[in-house]
Amino acid sequence: MPVEERTIVHFDLDSFFVEVERLQDSQLKGVPVIIGGHSDRAVVASCSYETRKFGVHSAMPMKRALTLCPQAIVVSGHMDLYGKYSHMVTEIISEASPLYEKASIDEHYIDITGMDRYFGSQKFAHELRMRVISETGLPISFGLSVNKTVAKIATSAAKPNGEKYVPFEMVRSFLNPLPVNKIPMIGEKTTEVLHKNNIYTIEQLSNLSQFEVEKMLGNYGVMVWNKANGIDNSPVFPSHERKSISTEETFDIDIDDLKFIDGLMVYMTEKLAYQLRREEKLASCVTVKIRYSSFETQTIQKQIPNSAFDDVILGTSRELFKKLYKKGLKIRLIGIRLSNLVQGSQQIDLFNDTTEMINLYQALDNMKKKYGKNAIQRAGGMKSKRDTESLKD
């Protein structure tokens, strides 16, 4: 389908975590608010527009943020509430939309191509936005245009709590004066490379040939050049949110070696937590399953704050196993399931984690992406996994 015939709307909740907290505490309205941990080594998970004018932004060390804006109120954050409100918004959008994609905990794309014939795309997007605001109390902005890239950039221009429509014939004039880092997926390093080559605006970037940009940025340059020229044929992927992920091990020989089982649980939780982070999901329920040699099967579960971190999930799994296990009985199967999944990147687990811990997880995940998911593991989990495989030989 030609790009000019597509109609895509991008919805983005404004300062989502902050606004959810303001619904719980009206005293937070209109004042600088930072969501994150309270220690000096914690980082900013989210911040209000009142703090951004001081230079505060997400992922900034908390100590630096409070130096820039000492009057800010720091709130620890409540992931269960954020998951609840995210689900509410998704439900509203799913009821009204022919085709939608949940891109993150606070973002949705909707393909409303052809709606002008019956309803009007601007009218539809406006009324849906008003419904979200009315039913949730949360401010939300949207950008409406010919593809996902332009719609997302338009949303940024509409914020806070606004609307922006960029028709096909206005795409180039809208994009041209904007700085290059307004293009989605262009980070600090790419921006630095472009600035070193005296490219500061999207117009300057789009005026280069595709070959020149590719030579400058590598294969990544093709995508950047397309986006600078308002070209993005990526579809809106239908959202079918997975409700749970799980893994289990059945032993050929029934065992009662608790040290071995603990090591295996380490391996299993690492595997599941990495899968969550890779798919940008968070879990709020952990279930442990035990099947004994008699084939008696029991399960136990516990709610947790939304997380995708190994330590949180492993600690809960160990706690549940200890409560469930009947001493002296041999085990035939052990399983772990993570459920009540919500969309969200690992940055929203920053409330009580230090910069060092977050950097460690990111480094581990980067190694797994480059060398394979088994490239690096905890020693205890790796040993138990090898021993499990030897039992099956």
Give a short summary of the structure.
The protein has 393 residues and is of the alpha+beta class.
Describe this entry's structure for a reader.
With 393 residues, this protein is of the alpha+beta class. It has helices spanning 16-24, 49-52, 62-68, 79-96, 121-136, 148-158, 171-175, 188-196, 202-206, 210-217, 220-228, 258-278, 310-324, 355-371, 379-392; strands at residues 8-13, 33-36, 44-47, 73-75, 100-104, 107-111, 140-145, 163-165, 244-255, 281-292, 297-307, 331-339, 342-343. The longest helix has 21 residues, at 258-278. The radius of gyration is 24 Å and the shape is globular. It has 3 domains: 1-166, Alpha-Beta Plaits (2-Layer Sandwich), CATH 3.30.70; 176-238, 5' to 3' exonuclease, C-terminal subdomain (DNA polymerase, domain 1), CATH 1.10.150; 244-392, Dna Ligase, domain 1. It has 15 helices and 13 strands. The strands form 3 sheets. Strands 5-6-1-7-8 form a 5-stranded mixed sheet. α10 (210-217) crosses α11 and α12 (258-278) packs across α15 (379-392).
